[in-house]
Amino acid sequence: MESCSFRAAAAPSPFPSVPSSSPRAPCPNLRFYGPRKGRLVGVRRKASGFEAFPPLPGKVFVEEAIGAEYGEGFETFRMDGPLKIDVDYLNEKLQECFLQRIRHAMKPDEAFGLIFSWDNVIADTDSLKLDAWRQLALEEGKDLPSAGHVQKSILHGAADHVLKKVLYWAKEESQMEKLKARLIELYYENLFKLDTPVKGLREWLDAIQTAGIPCAVASSLDRRCMIEALDRMALSKYFKAIVTDEDDMESIAHRFLSAAVKLDRKPSKCVVFEDDPRGVTAAHNCTMMAVALIGAHPAYELVQADLAIAKYRELSVINLRRLFAHKGISFMDLQKQIIEKSPPKRKLTVDTIF
Fold this sequence. Notes:
Elements: E1 30-32, E2 73-78, E3 81-86, H1 87-93, H2 98-106, E4 113-117, H3 125-140, H4 148-156, H5 159-166, H6 173-191, H7 201-211, E5 215-218, H8 223-233, E6 241-243, H9 252-263, E7 270-274, H10 277-285, E8 289-293, E9 307-309, H11 317-323
Parallel strand pairs: 4-5, 4-7, 5-6, 7-8, 8-9
Antiparallel strand pairs: 1-2, 2-3
C-alpha cells in the first residue's frame, strides 16, 4: 500500500512553526547554509493605528541575494542529527499521496501552486519607491536626475549604492544611515495609502480561485504591513499562505521554497509570478516555472522566463497546464526508455504418421 509522506496533517513539517501572535520569533534550531548578513532596521511608526508597530524591515531598498544554488536550502536539527532540506529533498517529500493523485487526475489544475511576488506583481511598488526618492530629494534640497540609467539604479539598486555612487548625496556613514532611514519611512507612508492592485490582477485571481489553485504571496515586508495592504486591496481571501520578513528568509529563492512548503506543493509544481530577472533565476533554481510581467523590465531582459506577459488578461488557466506540458523532455532530463520485446520464436515440429 502506498503511503503519504510529508503531509501537513499526517507528519510534522521539517520547518518549526512560529506562532502568528509573536512579532518576530525565528526558531533557534533553523539556519541557512550560507553566511548571514546584517539586517538593517528602520524607524518605528504608528501610522496604521497600532501603538507598538514593529521595526520596519531594511530589505525594501536592498538588493537581495538570488539564492538556491545546487544543494543550498535549509538545515534543521533533530535528535538523530542535522537534517539538510534542499530543493531535491522537498520535491521528494512533497510528493502527492495516492488519494491526491486520483483527485489531481480528475482536477489537474489543483496540483499546481502559484507564488506571487509583491513588487510590481500585486502592487505598483516602483511608483512608491520613486515618490519616496522625490520626497527625500525635496526635503534635502537636492535635484533628482531624470536620466534613464539613474532612474533604473534608483528603482532596482541598493540604497547604499545609489546614495554613494549614483546621487553622491552621502559621504559619511552616519549621514547615509540617516538618509536611508528617512527614505524607508517615506516609502511606508506611501505604502499605507496604497489601495489599488495591479490592473487585471483581481480578475486573474478570481479565475484561479474558481479552478481551485492555491496561491501564496512572497515579500520582504513586515507581516502586519502586508496583511493590511492586502485587506485594503480586498485581496486577502485569495491567498492561502503569506511569506514575509518574519519568516527570516535570507534570499529570494528561500522565500519561494518557504511558500511552496506552506502551500503543501512540491517546488517543481509551483509557478512564480515575477517582474525581475533575478526573481526568474531564483524560481528556476528552485525547479519552479516562472511567468514574467513586462513593465518594470523590458521583454528582452525577461527571456529566461517560461512565459512573459504584458497584462494579466493575456493569461488563462490553460496556460498553466501548457507550462508543464513538456515537463521531462528538456535537454539532459531523464526519460523512460521503451524496449520493444520481440515475439517468441515458434518451434517447428514434424508430425510423423506411422
